């Protein structure tokens, strides 16, 4: 059986205005050797993230000052640490909004120790998994080391991405999604094909994972002057060279 625990101790930012909940989460993750950084309001959460650069964020939605949705967006603008929303709000609208802003997973209170640790392990596996190396020989596209579409250039041998002379700082997942879009050269890439490109080792990847990662990739590519990443509602995504 696969061990659900992350492969290393983590630095976890726990954001919740309920001290009892913060204490409970601290106790649960502390048994696995993880270090907890705490914040009880939105402003402190953003500041602690900027100062501490945690590996992962556990974020409540309802809190004083900026709410969890705002905090998730501000944290996502500063870095790529996975965000797991931990909230008593169970509505589909809240889940969709949180995932759309940049959260990587959504855990509804109350929850058990096993589920919390499994969610943390799962998002860390997805965030840290590196792509398989590109073969140097073989037939067909196996020998292709450079891909380009609309000014976005991927050097597969070096695992680098750039627009013009500007290098892009992409996570492994974002790089694989970019590759899937660039290979299509402007054609539509359906959601299912793209999510399988982003998470090739997952037997049944969740389509909800796609939107926040595409949003981050779009921001990085377009801010560098690269091609637009267009969403075709209910169908997929494509590059606009």
Brief digest:
The chain has 241 residues and is an alpha/beta fold. It is built from eight helices and twelve strands.
Say what oligomer this is.
single chain
The Cα radius of gyration reads: 19 Å
SSE string, helices as H and strands as E:
EHEHEHEHEHEEEEHEHHEE
Largest sheet: 5 strands, parallel
Strand order of the largest sheet: 2-1-3-4-5
Structure summary, number of beta strands: 12
Low-confidence stretches: 1-6, 130-143
What is the terminal separation in angstroms? 45 Å
- Total of helices: 8
How would you classify the helix and strand content by structural class? alpha/beta
User: Share of helix among residues?
Assistant: 25-40%
What is the overall pLDDT average?
Answer: 84
SS strand fraction = 15-25%
Global outline: elongated
Describe the structure.
With 241 residues, the chain is α/β, with parallel strands linked by helices. Helix content is 39%, strand content 21%. The protein contains eight helices and twelve strands. The strands form three sheets. It has a five-stranded parallel sheet with strand order 2-1-3-4-5, with helices on both faces. A four-stranded antiparallel sheet has the order 6-7-8-9, covered by helices on one side. A three-stranded antiparallel sheet has the order 10-12-11. Strand 8 and strand 9 form a beta hairpin. Helix 2 runs parallel beside helix 3, helix 6 packs across helix 7 and helix 6 crosses helix 8. The N and C termini lie far apart (45 Å). The relative contact order is 0.11. The N terminus is likely disordered.
């Amino acid at each position: 059986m696969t061990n659900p625990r992350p492969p290393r101790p983590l630095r976890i930012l726990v954001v919740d205005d309920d001290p009892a909940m913060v204490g409970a989460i601290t106790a649960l993750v502390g048994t696995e050797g993880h270090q907890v950084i705490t914040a009880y309001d939105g402003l402190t959460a953003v500041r602690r993230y900027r100062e501490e650069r945690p590996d992962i964020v556990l974020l409540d939605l309802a809190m004083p000052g900026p709410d969890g949705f705002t905090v998730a967006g501000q944290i996502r603008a500063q870095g790529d640490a996975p965000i797991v929303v931990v909230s008593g709000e169970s509505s589909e609208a809240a889940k969709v909004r949180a995932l759309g802003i940049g959260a990587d997973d959504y855990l509804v209170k109350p929850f058990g120790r096993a589920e919390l640790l499994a969610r943390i392990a799962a998002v860390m596996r997805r965030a840290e998994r590196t792509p398989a190396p590109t073969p140097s020989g073989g037939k067909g596209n196996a020998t292709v080391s450079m891909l380009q579409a609309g000014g976005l250039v991927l050097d597969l041998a070096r695992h680098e991405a750039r627009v013009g002379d500007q290098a892009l700082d992409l996570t492994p997942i974002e790089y694989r999604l970019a590759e899937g879009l660039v290979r299509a050269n402007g054609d539509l890439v359906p959601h299912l094909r793209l999510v399988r490109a982003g998470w090739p080792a997952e037997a049944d990847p969740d389509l909800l994972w796609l939107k926040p990662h595409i949003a981050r990739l779009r921001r990085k590519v377009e801010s560098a002057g690269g091609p637009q990443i267009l969403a075709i509602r209910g169908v997929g995504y494509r590059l606009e060279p």
